[in-house]
Amino acid sequence: MTDIASRPVHDDRPLKPALLNGLRLRCPACGEGRLLTGYLKVRDTCPSCGEALHHQRADDGPAYLTILIVGHLMAPLILWAFIHYRPDPLVLSGVFAMGCVALSLYLLPRMKGLMVAIQWAKRMHGFGAAPHERA
After folding, report:
1. CB 116 within 8 Å of CB 122
2. Which domain of life does the protein's organism represent (predicted)?
């Protein structure tokens, strides 16, 4: 049985630049290479620096974050628009449905980039392996 104190400790990578790169859909390591190949498909490796990105496990996190943000932005706006302008309910629901869809489509890939960047910076899910341990 190994002692916790004898395990090698890896320092976390700089979080703020990684988060900004993730939000810009760039590689969290170098900030130059594109992170995604399609709308939500993460590249296996960065085309600029060669950083392995296939370790990522974003799963449902980006969807939850997107729903959280869109809900917290749009709910007060709907209430405000209804109180101040009293539009027809069909117009109100149509406008805000389009707004919710557009904002969700904009935020979803950025939240995926954010999740990958957090995992990279915190050395989660294989991102912290030494170069000789990577397969």
Report:
1. no
2. Bacteria
